[in-house]
Amino acid sequence: MAAQKINEAHEHIAKAEKCLKTSLTKWKPDFDSAASEYAKAAVAFKNAKQFEQAKDAYLKEAEYHTENKALFHAAKALEQAGMMMKDMKRMPEAVQYIEKASMMYVENGTPDTAAMALDRAGKLVEPTNVAQAVDLYQKAASVFENEDRLRQAAELLGKASRLLVRLRRLDEAAVSIQKEKNMYKEIENYPTCFKKTIAQVLVHLHRNDFVAADKCVRETYSIPGFSGSEDCVALEQLLQGYDEQDEDQAYRVCNSALFKYMDNDYAKLAISLRVPGGGKKKKSPTAPQGGAGGAAEEDDDYEGGLC
User: Distance (Å, rounded) from C-alpha 31 to C-alpha 63?
Assistant: First the structure.
């Protein structure tokens, strides 16, 4: 069966080469027909599991579609070449071809297809190269954003934000989540803004930046429906527990269903959060040891450590 498919592929290549020949009566190569024959050859090679040869045939198809000014079809062929690289576990080359295809889609005036190609490339490399996946998702989001497709842009940024958290690149994650939140606010998807605020607060607290975490919550009060919502109440309790070094309160909030059922990367931030001050509940100002002065000292220490 494989041998038959390989023979079939070579027959299509021979036909393609014939289409490219010129003569006294045929002045121009027939690029369209040549591209079509290389496409058939590529499929035959792929069915025979000859991925390297299939990739070469797809590249030839892309070349002749480009000669024929058929950029969309050329980009599709480049994407297929990338998939052959994926089947051979050669991910860097796979991504290279898909990125090239996405640029061609943009040039052709089909940016949506370009963004979706970058998204697919991101999914391909995510299991083996998280940092590269972040870059691809960000590029895809940027393409959608340029087209004012904010919902799609925000979803792709969401993927990038989660992976940045996984990589512990928390400063970048904080910026990325804020950008997502702004997009969701613009399209009036307010409940998602509240969830993004929870993610922001967790990231900022892991960055030891209580002021930034508190600011995120204060700003979210301007979004309709936030005040009094379960997200708002939980965040106020978390910030209070963190500020007062009350680990019990912070623990209860971080282990509530609202936090535990977030995306896995954020749920991990919640359950691993530790309050400053060694984790013991802060004594009330009326406690015998230290009195009011002791409480003030704790506040001073906390302020210096986090702001």
Answer: 9
